[in-house]
Amino acid sequence: MEKAANILIVDDDEAIRSSLRRSLALEGYKASIATDGDEALRLVREQPPDLVVLDVMMPTLDGLEVCRRLRASDTELPIIMLTARDAVPDRVAGLENGADDYLVKPFAFEELLARIRVRLRRREAPDRHELLFADLRLDTAAREAQRGERVIALTTTEYELLRCFLEHPRRVLNRDLIYRRVWGYDFGSESKVIEVYVKYLRDKLEAGGEARLIHTVRGAGYVLKQGD
Fold first, then answer.
1. Residues 36, 54: Cα–Cα separation, whole Å
2. Phi, psi of 135 (to 5 degrees)
3. Using an 8 Å Cβ cutoff, are 26 and 34 in contact?
4. Which of 29, 85, 72 is nearest to 53 (CA)?
5. How far is Cα 75 from Cα 6, in angstroms, rounded to an integer?
6. Residue of 222, 220, 199, 202 whose CA lies nearest to 210
7. pTM of the predicted model, to two decimals?
């Protein structure tokens, strides 16, 4: 029998915790709960979950700080943030602190469930092969990139985005295609999610002074290519 995924719910609202725990259990998941950031960090150390659903606005240690600490210790742990703030800068702040995804309250459980399923699928063991372009290599077993001899650690979302580019070299990828391939759904026209993660990738791929490989095509999208 396949082992049920363990999802950690972190929220200081008892009603939300109880509702999510009950709903996830009905879907066949094992759900544990934490009432604040400190408890969440302790539970992750003691029994690492397969995914974390993390509220942003909590007393003492807020969700952004918890996310930073979780991401610093585990680059692959899927983290979905819940926030009552729907402004673009607030959403970007979550992503910049290491979240893979975010959902604005109030939300439909079906939407959260769909996003959980997408993130858990991303964590399944990949087929073992390499993707190559110029001096860039992506090991899909280790989920690790190399630029020449320099090893580059990637978060789950960074890995999926880089893999998307490497599977379509020299092809302009529009936002809709990238959203479908990497996130499984569209965040909307005002979202800056793609821009945020392209910046993350560029910073890592060019950290040793290497030439840019991911280029912006104004009004069209992005392309993996050599040269301007």
1. 10
2. -95, 15
3. no
4. 29
5. 18
6. 202
7. 0.65
